[in-house]
Amino acid sequence: MKVSYKWLQEYLDIDINPTDLAEKIARTSVDINDVYSPSDGLKKLVVGHIESVEPHPDSDHLTLCQVDNGEETVQIVCGAPNVVAGKNVIVALPGARIGNNIKIKRSKMRGEISEGMLCALQEIGFSEKIAPKAYDEGIWFLPDDAKPGESVFPYLGMDDTIIDTDITPNRGDMFSMLGNVNDIAAFYGLKSHFKTLNVKENSTTSTADLIKVQIDDTNLAPTYKLRVINNIEIKDSPMWMQIRLWNAGIRPINNVVDVTNYILLKYGQPLHSFDYDKLPEKEIKVRFAKKDEAFTTLDEDERKLNEQDVVVTAGDKPAALAGTMGGLDTAISNETKNVALEAAIFNPTLIRKQARRHDLHSESSTRFERGINPETVETALNEAAELIAELGNGTVATGIVTGSEAAINEPKVEMKLARINHVLGTQMKMEDVTNIFDRLAFDYNVDGDTITVTVPARRWDVSIEADLLEEIARIYGYDNLPSTLPEQTSNIGALSLRQNLIRSSRHVLEGEGLNQAISYSLTTNDKAEQFQIENHGTPMLLDYPMSQDHIATRMSLISGLLNDIAYNIARKQKDVRLYEQGRIFTTDNDGIRPLEQEHIAGAMTGQLLNNNWHQENHSVDFYDLKGIVERYLENMSLSGTVTFVPSNERAELHPGRTANIKLDDQLIGFIGQVHPQIAKEYKIPETYVFELNLEAIIEAPKQGRHYDEISKYPSIKRDIALLLDDNTLNSDITAAINKKGGSYLVDVHLFDVYQGAHLPAHKKSLAYTLTYQDKNGTLTEDQVNESFDKVVSYLTAEFDTEIR
To answer: Residue limits of the B5 domain (predicted)?
Structure first.
């Protein structure tokens, strides 16, 4: 909420620097977003009086204005359509700074001298959302009693300081001037001069004869009250009220609507005004909307309602979306003569869900969501009715029509002085505690060392002992509480085995040249279902998503990585290598609660090696990524056997360039090329991906010793070329060689693959280098030959191969 410092000074005898006040509020009540003055960055803006206006000789839309700036009469060229002689206006003198730090200079416009600029509100920093619509295309007129040459800031309320507070859900009382006055008075020990305006019922007509209210379900509207104001004149509200509104970020509309917004700021009580004559029936009800019931709100949007929406109806026709926004058909217009004024408390949960469902967060709904002070509902209604009557020369009908009225709850909480000092670590006396409750204006009763506090309804966030202890602490001053170190044993901090392995996973992939990415855990429903290691069914959907792009929990990390690649590709970054370690979300057996699994995934596209004097371009391919995955799994020190099994069952991946990754017989992931059709949907080029279930890797048995000492003895190599069927897998051959290679075999390397001329049909040649080495001595030729012959014999028998 944007709190006006000058408005605060009307209710409190406070003379504290606004910045210091904001710091005190932040340390005692709620957070602060900003402290600023509307005049910050502006200078040399003065009141000017237009003495005469003449058309520009060389333009059909410019005028020459003779303006008294307080020191002299100067000529200013102006293009505003509403410029007229005899008005006081905002003048930016030569050298002035206006909105967006624009400097005004003396200049010529089509041959005519212009000694400054006549300004609209938007040009001196007012937002388009708060500048009055009547002046959208023209300059602003200052009051007739404004004196030329004086600063314009006091006339526009720009000499004020605004404290922008960030209201938490539990402190809805701070969403009003009344709440801020009460709190600031408490922690500074000041006396509040908050003023209310009593209503004068100057009509002989009874409100009950004009309109009726029937609330069948008080859960929807625990409190609902109406007044009627007759024979009013719609016009602009006075300048003091417009200043209050636009300094709070609200656009002034007319005297009726502005009063309801002013009362909203003052009391935190949302009001709604209906054009009484436009109500189709003079009986107001509150009910749930019907399925697909159409309703046009004040913003001229036609909305389809559902059975969870709450509407205020005139008869059976919706007249307002309760607590959120009024209807266009019953809105106040320039022709309005009679007003029905509503003050209510609506169900906060239903209003919050309704506002999110329709993406319609208004000043009213924000306050209804956090709670309304039941003590001031009628007070706010009466003051609003009186102001509307005063400003519109109308009459207030006699009495209030009440459809429902919830009982005011003032809980009583008992505390002992010893308990207070024990929790807060203080040594306060009962007089200190009672002084704090006096400042808070909480009623209490003291009996020995026990105090029973009656919590006023305006502080609905306080209901138990812990709440009162917090109130005592913050008014006493958090800085005044004694500081003590917690009692604990000295333990050496360290990462758990799980944390170590997850961190090592990131280090390994970064060492392999991949960059870490962090993607959203929420995505679209279609993307959430893609790239699952195992089919977990449908994703979990959010009831109230932030947007249509974030409605489902991800069941794979790859879709997020592909979004990141698309983002880079769109910005001309064509060589992208990314990985992500994070959680996916599946459902348990009841389909309600999410199960979280740690996964790790990677994606690569573009060139792995760029063209230079000694090598050609090398684009990323399946085997590059497979090598990275193999190195990662080797570094994880798994004791089981890792295999890559070709697969064509994954619709999102290329059927001929995809493999499942298994640890022994357990599926732990996959690797492959993104299917060209999927890549087209993501707007990315040829891309290769992998994903591994990190939970399975963490839980898998590990090798006791992860490294071997390097042997100081020489190695011996043997080459072998095999003629095989073209469907024989390299992994099968490598496994067979390692099986029969003996204890001295330390490496098997495939160095050549050949198919084509000079070979029989459906045959291929694979050539391997076998490396033998002993850690404890020098190998002899006989030892190596014996081991090598066993390999040859086994391959010949097992694969029906021919040694070339």
So the answer is: 408-483
